[in-house]
C-alpha cells in the first residue's frame, strides 16, 4: 500500500497531526510519501492508494497555498481527462482530510466547511473520502485566543494523548479497508 501525506502547517499543529497519521499508516504497512504542500512538485495523486491532505482552517477555508494547490492539481487532472461525468469511484483510491482549528471564534463550525471544500476535489476525481478529521490545536501567537474562546483553554493541543489516538484511528481506518 502506498500513501501520500500532504500538509500545510504554519504553527506546527497540523504537522503534528500529519506525523501521527504517518505513524499509523506505517504501522499498517504503508510506504508513505510525506511532504509539505509547498514541496509536492509533480506528485500524482493517482499513484497512491491513500492521499491524506491536512491544513488549518482560516476563516472557514483552507489557507490560500492549499486552495491554490488543490485548484491547480484539479485543473491538471481535468485537462488530462481524469475528471469524469458522475464522478465514478475508482476502486482502491482513498482520501483522508484532516483540518486543525483553534478556539477564538466558533470552533469546529469554522473547520467543517474547510474540510468539506478540500474533500470535494478528491470526490470529483473518484476517490472515496473515507474520513474528515477535525483536530483542536493551540492558537499560537496570542494567548487570549487559546484561553478565552468557546473551547476553553486549548493550550498544548493537540496533546500527546490526542496524537496517539490519531495514530490508532489511522490504523483502524486503514485496516477496516484492507
Task: Kindly summarize this structure in a few lines.
The protein is of the alpha/beta class.
- The radius of gyration computed from the alpha-carbon positions, rounded to a whole number of angstroms, is 16 Å
Strand content: 15-25%
Number of strands: 5
Number of DSSP helices? 5
Sequence of strands across the biggest β-sheet: 2-1-3-4-5
CATH hierarchy: architecture: 3-Layer(aba) Sandwich
Helix content: 25-40%
Explain the layout of strands and helices:
Elements lengths: L1 E6 L5 H15 L3 E6 L13 E7 L7 H16 L14 E8 L6 H18 L2 E9 L7 H4 L12 H17 L2
Parallel strand pairs: 1-2, 1-3, 3-4, 4-5
Structure description:
The protein is an alpha/beta fold and 178 residues long. It has a single domain, classed as 3-Layer(aba) Sandwich (Rossmann fold), CATH 3.40.50.360. Helices cover 39% and strands 20% of the residues. It is built from five helices and five strands. A five-stranded parallel beta sheet has the order 2-1-3-4-5, sandwiched between helices. The chain is globular, with a radius of gyration of 16 Å. The chain starts with a strand and ends with a helix.
List keywords for this structure.
5 helices, alpha/beta, Rossmann fold, 178 residues
Amino acid at each position: 500500500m502506498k500513501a501520500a501525506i500532504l500538509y500545510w502547517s504554519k504553527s506546527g499543529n497540523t504537522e503534528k497531526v500529519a506525523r501521527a497519521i504517518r505513524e499509523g499508516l506505517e504501522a499498517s504497512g504503508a510506504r508513505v510519501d510525506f511532504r509539505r504542500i509547498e514541496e509536492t512538485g509533480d506528485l500524482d495523486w493517482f499513484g497512491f492508494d491513500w492521499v491524506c491532505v491536512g491544513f488549518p482552517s482560516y476563516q472557514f477555508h483552507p489557507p490560500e497555498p492549499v486552495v491554490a494547490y488543490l485548484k491547480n492539481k484539479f485543473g491538471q487532472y481535468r485537462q488530462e481527462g481524469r475528471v469524469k461525468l458522475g464522478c465514478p469511484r475508482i476502486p482502491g483510491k482513498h482520501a483522508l482530510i484532516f483540518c486543525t482549528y483553534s478556539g477564538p471564534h466558533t470552533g469546529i463550525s469554522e473547520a467543517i466547511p474547510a474540510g468539506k471544500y478540500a474533500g470535494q476535489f478528491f470526490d470529483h476525481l473518484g476517490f472515496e473520502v473515507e474520513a474528515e478529521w477535525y483536530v483542536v490545536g493551540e492558537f499560537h501567537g496570542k494567548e487570549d485566543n487559546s484561553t478565552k474562546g468557546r473551547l476553553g483553554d486549548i493550550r498544548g493541543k493537540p496533546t500527546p494523548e490526542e496524537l496517539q489516538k490519531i495514530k490508532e484511528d489511522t490504523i483502524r481506518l486503514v485496516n477496516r479497508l484492507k
